[in-house]
Amino acid sequence: MSVGYLTYRPGNMIPVNEELLNKFEIYRDNRSQAQTIRDILCVALGVQLSKIDLSYGHVQKINTRIEMALEKERSKRGISKRETVRQLVSEHLESRGGIQN
């Protein structure tokens, strides 16, 4: 049962349970939900960002690269994109213990 939402991009709200929402909120600290999810997806999907991408905040370029990698992962898992994002975030937080170092 979902009790909250993670907002990946405007209009892309992913329902999550209370446990995952609490872990995510602790992990994200003072960053936005979207930035935190982008960071997690880059790590989980192996999307490499250049220094230019990071320094100038090329969000659209980063989102495009994430979307391409996410579609491949979604096809591999055979589930919806929303569920793939939820699983990747959950897996990442479980591997990190839910708390940012």
Task: Please tell me about this protein's structure.
- It is a single chain.
- The protein is mainly alpha-helical and 101 residues long.
- It contains five helices and two strands; from the N terminus they run ββααααα.
- The protein has helices spanning 18-28, 33-45, 51-56, 59-77, 81-96; strands at residues 4-9, 12-16.
- The chain has a two-stranded antiparallel ribbon.
- α2 (33-45) packs across α5 (81-96).
- It is globular and about 40 Å long.
- The termini are far apart.
Strand content: 5-15%
The total beta strand count reads 2
Structural class: mainly alpha
Sequence stretches where pLDDT stays below 50 over 5 or more residues: none
Helix fraction, binned, reads 55-70%
Distance between the termini: 29 Å
Averaged pLDDT: 85
Q: Give the count of helical stretches.
A: 5
What key attributes describe this structure?
101 residues, mainly alpha, two-stranded antiparallel sheet, 5 helices, 2 strands, globular
Task: Briefly say what this structure is.
With about 100 residues, the protein is mainly α. The chain contains 5 helices and 2 strands.
List the helices and strands and how they pair.
Layout: E1 4-9, E2 12-16, H1 18-28, H2 33-45, H3 51-56, H4 59-77, H5 81-96
Antiparallel strand pairs: 1-2
Helix pairs in contact: 2-4, 2-5
